[in-house]
Specification:
This protein has 279 residues and is α+β, with helices and mostly antiparallel strands. The protein has 8 helices and 16 strands. A hairpin with a 2-residue loop joins strand 1 and strand 2. The radius of gyration is 18 Å and the shape is globular. It starts with a strand and ends with a strand. The relative contact order is 0.16. The site of zinc ion has 5 residues, from loops.
């Protein structure tokens, strides 16, 4: 289990397992001749992809960033992506029950980031984390509701609408502090309103950067996923992120990297970006 401390906060990576993404979609316009040197694809060109959530124990509250794919995926999509559904087991292994979670933060509302927000109970869909207050961006939610041809498949309303109806989900309008030391910051590109989660403690910073940089293989400015709605903004957002994260040594959490869930982004010789992993 990946665990560290940041000031008074304890940070733990908890995974929902791994799923399949198409390697071509994962690396966008980058030729396979290049990305295949970094990750291995199977015979169907699928890449084994992590689903990392971050558990933040503040001492006062248990905060869960992102909730993986969950266990409600339609059968057709289970065939394509698989549905590992391991998050609750891994939370249990970290000593946390669903009732112990006080706050859930979704960086955006794609189904592989908010699936465990809710579970089915008979005819109803209810909060998986019964006591939790959930946070997402209002404009992200509104975009999902449009059900546009391009990305309707990514937005499944049972993952969030029941929480809005029950009053458990708080919709944010831009950057915000969630609790002292934990805040959200918009980094547009993957979606217009995707938010990263910043943790500050003991003079140090960590950042759950979500799909702006999904894995350590996506550090290059131009290695942008085909899923991104605004690839030019992804590049600008990455520049902004590196301009702070590298000199200030932010511990960066990679949502979709099973092998390297977190590390410090560094610029090596000739400007090449790399990750220094936690010892
Ligand atoms: Zn996404």
């Amino acid at each position: 289990m990946h665990r560290t401390t940041l000031g008074d906060f304890e940070l733990t990576v908890v995974s929902d397992g791994t799923y399949f993404l198409d390697g071509g979609a994962f690396f966008g316009v980058v030729p396979k001749a290049m990305w295949s040197k970094k990750v291995t694809a199977d015979a169907l060109n699928r890449v084994d992809t992590g689903l990392n959530s971050l558990l933040i124990r503040t001492g006062d509250k248990n905060i869960l960033v992102e909730t993986g794919i969950g266990n409600k995926l339609p059968e057709k999509l289970v065939q394509i992506y698989t549905q590992p559904a391991k998050l609750l087991d891994n939370l249990h292994a970290a000593g946390v029950a669903p009732e112990d979670i006080d706050i859930v933060i979704n960086t955006h509302l794609h189904f592989d980031h908010c699936g465990w927000n809710t579970v089915r109970r008979g005819d109803h869909v209810v909060a998986t984390f019964p006591r939790a207050k959930y946070y997402a961006q209002r404009q992200e939610w509104q975009h999902g509701r449009l059900q546009l041809e391009r990305d309707a498949i990514s937005y499944m309303s049972p993952n969030y609408d029941p929480l809005i109806e029950s009053g458990q989900m708080v919709l944010l309008d831009g950057d915000a502090e969630v609790v002292p030391g934990v805040s959200v910051k918009i980094f547009p590109g993957h979606t217009a309103d995707m938010q990263a989660v910043m943790v500050e403690g003991g003079g140090k910073k960590a950042c759950y950067i979500s799909d702006l940089i999904p894995t350590a293989a996506h550090l290059d400015l131009t290695w942008v996923m085909a899923f991104d709605l605004f690839p030019l903004e992804t590049i600008e957002s990455r520049k902004k992120f590196y301009a702070q994260a590298i000199p200030e040594k932010w511990l960066t959490v990679f949502t979709h990297d099973d092998a390297t869930p977190w590390g410090y982004v560094e610029r090596g010789e000739r400007g090449k970006l790399g990750v220094k992993t936690l010892g």
